[in-house]
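Instructor's aside before we start: the two examples that follow are unrelated to each other. I chose them only because their records fit on one page, so don't look for a connection. First example below.
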Amino acid sequence: MDQQTYLKKFSHSIRWRLPKPEADEVLADYEALFSEHLLENDDAWIQDLGEPLEAARLLTEPKVYRRWLAAFGLMASCLLLPEYLLLRARFNQYPLGLMSILLAAGTAIALICFRPQRKETARAPFPKGLCLMLSVLLLIMAAAAAVLAGLITGIWELLPPAWYGRIAYWTMGISGTAAAVTGLFGLVMARMSDRRWRALYIMGLMVLVECVLVIANLVSMDLGSTTSGWWVSCAVSLSAIGLAGLAGAGVSLC
């Protein structure tokens, strides 16, 4: 294994296992070590370092790493449970309480796990691609809002009910799944690159939760009912969820 390949694999492993400030210090030491042997043709000394994953494991404190894995599992579960409910699309009751708890828990854990560290000496440039991906999530949220607005205004009544059901389900299903995947990507990037990627996780979780709530509302309502104002409580709930998610994402960018 050449020096470049070794350092790349080691970088991925150590950034996953250690918080960014500590990982940066370890990588700086390794880069200095590799620069000393840059002109050497004999790579036998690399073998003495061990495999990249094993070397990273030896530099990891097991208890701290297990705590990180537990936190990652909890944050991932906050995405996976709504995604399961979204794909299942069967609800015994309106899951507003559960979705609110998952959004609050995921946001709180992300803000705690990726809080600023004392060892951070300078503010890094804003992560490339983060603004674009946040904008994509906002567009997905707008698509979900358009489906609900279409029902409120009666635009979809021009279509057969079965068509509207399929359009709403697939729009929410695809949008929510895209938000879940995007949120998971943001979670990984927050660990591997820059803590401000946590904003993408929080936004993805928020959009996913809203998609679940829209689907739950549609499958539980009586399409033949003439009761007016049914949408007010749903709109209020979605607005509150959206504001909470946007606030969490805004704090995450600081």
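Example two begins here.
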Amino acid sequence: MDLTQGTNKEKKARAKKMMLWFGIASLLMGFAGWTSAYIVSSSRADWLKDFVLPSAFLLSTAIIILSSGTYILAKKAIRANNAGLGTKWLFLTLILGIAFIIIQFSGFSQLIEQGYYFTGPTSNITMSYIFLIAAVHIVHVISGLISLLVVLYNNIRGNYSANNILGVELGITFWHFLDLLWVYLILFFYFFG
């Protein structure tokens, strides 16, 4: 397919999707670098062995997976020209996204209760990586929530229809990426922890 062909609307849509994919690729490279450094650092003498992840991280995993499902239902409703139902699903996705972040901080609290800190005399390299990687993911979830708020606002304003859902498609792609990234990270910590 020739990318220079099509209407201006189609060209802009392709450009926006391409920009999103470039952004996702750069985020993947960043997280691949951190997880690679985690693996390399695991050979250190001071590496924490047999670490058990906080239960809050597992709960937050279920929440973010569920939020991807509610976002899919929102997109289906909007595509069916049922903006009201789409708005309800988007609100639920927003609530689940916020719950994910709150539960992540609960996981950080569980780590601290176990005596693990990000920095300081009682910290160790293992926990510093876990805190850092999880915190950077939270920052990206916050950006996902901002994009979700934009989608929600545009849906409430009636800017989407079955023939005009580019914003929803961009938002859901980024949200699913964040979901899959966290699932990868939790599995990574579980198997390489």
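The chain is about 75% helix and 0% strand.
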